[in-house]
Amino acid sequence: MSQHRPLTRDELAALIQAGEIDTVILAFPDMQGRLVGKRMTGWFFLQDAADHGTENCNYLIATDMDDNALAGFRFASYEQGYGDMVAMPDWNTIRIMAWQTKTAIVLADLRDPRTQKPVAVSPRQMLRDQVAVVNTAGYNAMIGSEIEFYLFHESYRQAHDKGYRDLAPHSPWMQDYQIVQTTFDEYVVGDIRRNLEACGIAVECSKGEAGRGQHEVNLQYTDALEMADRNLLYKSAAKEIAASHGRSVSFMAKWNFAETGSSCHVHSSLWNTPDNVPAFAGSQLPEVFKHYTAGLLATARDFTLLWAPTVNSYRRFQPGSWAPTAVAWGTDNRTLGLRVVGHGNARRVESRIPGSDANSYIAFAGIIAGGMYGIRHQLTLEDPFVGNGYEATSLPRIPNTLIEAIHCWENSAIAKECFGDDVHDHILSMAKAEWAAFNQHVTDWELTRYFERS
Asked: Which has the least CB within 10 A, 175, 214, 215, 290?
């Protein structure tokens, strides 16, 4: 049984000295939410990196998905010489990677080597800064999230060689909540659950979802930064474990338009400090809950870029698809962007907007920032919407393209208030580069539609 906690520094050192761990990964999330960093021998980590960190080129958080250095960033550029940033171990994040041989991982925070100040535009620091806003107001932010993925028969190399076309989902049937059908996938999905538990990450359950070969693994809720760290490791583990079985998983928001999209539903609540009592509890909706939820509504369009960062993200937002299209809230209503669930101490707000391709650090930062904006400005919560949100044309709509989301973020005074100019510009530069990259390609759909008949 997993102890469901990270190791201590002394425990890691003892495992290295005993020869039970010979490799330490010191890593951090990039802008796409992927692990980047270095693998070190255990002795070298203890001797050199444990106290001093490691140097990493600062372009790593100013690139596209192909690691191309991008122009337009204030933080890093060829003009500035692409210098180093220092990855310093966060000693609250040590875990054994049970699916790798004799390997531990430590997550890192990034610092400017000249000033030793945190790198404000790094994803982990973006979330840390929003958590600090919550803490200053007298609360802790608690988060739970549900990230879905598709499991395929092909390995990653086979999928690549097929051009990611004509892939075979692991199930020929939609398997929402189905037990027998998901049993056929257990050699992969069960292996993911068990290895996450062995890694010290508490797993509540897994279940089949509303697509062929689609699954969801639910991790136990916790504070915002720890939840983002768990998601980072979960997504990495799922890919690596699937690959070890000759299979692949995808966290694309919409891998096939005919299939249900994959989401990252985010459940959030505030807890009072220092007594750690849920602030959203009570027989009636507390005022802090109303302000918080009103803030999520007020920022939903402006912040969509934080939850839907790619061109593909916007394929999810289709009527009747289980992904929301309307900016509204309701009680246990899955057709809306915000769904209030739970009772008493368990009351929380579920944002159904984020997709499985979201960077959890940035996505959670957006949720927290929106809620705190509502509290800070004492926003009034409108009445809950009752009915089918897909058919309610009077409701504000979630942006349905990346370029619309870019315009919302770029012109948002709220985004600048909540995140500051540097983070605002960094997110904007990343999104504009993604849109520009998409527009440099001709899609298969365009060829089929226009090649002969235009």
From this structure: 290
